[in-house]
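Justification of resources, computational component.

The compute hours requested in this renewal are based largely on the per-chain cost of generating structure records like the one below. Each record pairs the submitted sequence with a full structure-token output. That output is archived, and it is also reused by downstream analysis tasks.
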Amino acid sequence: MKQLDKLIARDLLSIRAVFFRPEEPFTWASGIKSPVYCDNRLTLTAPAVRTDVEEGLATLIREHYPEAEVLMGTSTAGIAHAAITGHLLGLPMGYVRSGAKDHGRQNQIEGRLLPGQKVVVVEDLISTGGSVIEVVNVLREAGADVLGIVSIFTYGMKKGLDRLAEAKVKNVSLTNFDVIAEVAAEEGYIKDEDIARLIAFRNDPADESWIGK
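The structure output for this chain reads:
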């Protein structure tokens, strides 16, 4: 597992799916200044990295959720990962829309899901955890037995960890913010002294005192 989290960290950094810029922070939609930019959709257009990610997700599911019967992707980022990983595992997959359709059968869950089926949710990124917990709740309301979540990357933010704990749902990620920051310093993407600034951001995104240090 330790080898896998560093492999995925190197992969994400190499294609700038996770890109650190502590000297020139990005601005999130919420207005928060961030030293990191994340776009794991880029893994889909990098075949070698995509292979590592999907095989890694399959490994996590075998290890942590061996009883899984169905994979459900989050919309839209988790859909492709759920489909490819489901193919590797020989499992059916579907996905959960952000809201019910306003036409046809007005589905919010796409794909066949039977009450009591054991489901693993596939997500690309977890920050504050709000969107993935909404997916878990929709599946539970439909009668699914949600075993947990697998994701490519997690920040490990307190708000996200607290929300997952409150929802009583487990998440297992291929890699995390701390590992990626460590690998980024090892490989020269950032300076060693930037790690403390990055961790300060992660621990309290609303506190911008790390900027300019």
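The two ends are 33 Å apart (CA to CA). The chain has a mean pLDDT of 93.
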